[in-house]
Amino acid sequence: MVSGFIKPLQPELLSNWRSVSVDYPKAGSERFSRVRTMQDRPLGPFVAYTAIGVDAVYGQKVRQLAAAGPEEMRKEGVSGLLGAFLDTEQELAVKSIEIRFDQLRFDLESVEEVFGLDDGENEPMVAKDACTAKPPTTELQSEDIEIHPIKIIISRVLEKKPHILANRVWNLIKNDFNSETRKYDVDGVISTMDSEIIEWFGHGDTIKVLKYKTFRNYVSNLKTKRN
């Protein structure tokens, strides 16, 4: 069970963003009087409650009787007090959620930063007699020269991390796009990037769109050429 607060790091992946009043139109919000609500989905990471639900609370009649004192309660009699206690209201409350082990997802980039896992950036050493080295070539074939801007950016990632999956290549480029100093898109080709598409500058003033499926094929083809 998880309760308390969470911090969504990729708010662009959140869906069905709505006001709590849509689900609980009759619930009071006294417990959250000091909480700032956000009508629009944030663009960056933010802190939120794990889950919001409602609790049944005593109604206004009970609170009035409690404030009035014992004398007023005696006037109401047993039936009046019983009716007051049965007259409950709803109040917004923080709830817990259950996360199963098969639902857990980890940010591999963060795991790598903390534990230094091998992602293929450092190639293992191979004994000299284990394979036959290819003689160096001085001539560069014309078909080996890559001119597609996005493929060039992908190739820069694969030079450092040749064995990572396409989704990690995408995330590394997206993080690079959002950083102040870019090390992959050094020419500023990408104009917009989210979890589904890349918009990039073509020839002249044209804006081209690349979907993730095509991007994944680019990564696969470039890996094949490198092998």
For the structure shown, list the relevant keywords.
two-stranded antiparallel ribbon, 2 domains, 7 strands, 7 helices
Task: Please characterize this protein's 3D structure.
Strand 5 (190-193) and strand 6 (197-201) form a beta hairpin. With 227 residues, the chain is an alpha+beta fold. The chain has a 3-stranded antiparallel sheet. It folds into 2 domains: 5-103, no CATH class; 108-122 and 146-226, no CATH class. The protein has 7 helices and 7 strands; from the N terminus they run E-H-E-E-H-H-E-H-H-H-E-E-E-H. The chain has helices at 20-23, 60-68, 70-86, 108-115, 149-160, 166-178, 212-226, and strands spanning 5-6, 48-49, 51-58, 88-95, 190-193, 197-201, 207-211. Helices cover 34% and strands 15% of the residues.
What order do the helices and strands come in, and which of them pair?
Layout: E1 5-6, H1 20-23, E2 48-49, E3 51-58, H2 60-68, H3 70-86, E4 88-95, H4 108-115, H5 149-160, H6 166-178, E5 190-193, E6 197-201, E7 207-211, H7 212-226
Antiparallel strand pairs: 1-2, 3-4, 5-6, 6-7
Helix pairs in contact: 2-3, 5-6, 5-7, 6-7
Number of domains: 2
Structural class assignment? alpha+beta
Radius of gyration: 29 Å
Low-confidence stretches: 118-140
Tell me the span between the first and last alpha carbons.
46 Å
Q: Which of globular, elongated, flat, extended, rod-shaped describes the shape?
A: elongated
Helix content: 25-40%
**Number of DSSP E strands:** 7
Q: Give the spatial strand order of the biggest sheet.
A: 5-6-7
* Beta-strand percent range: 5-15%
Number of helices: 7
The topology string of helices and strands comes to: EHEEHHEHHHEEEH
Mean pLDDT, nearest integer? Answer: 76
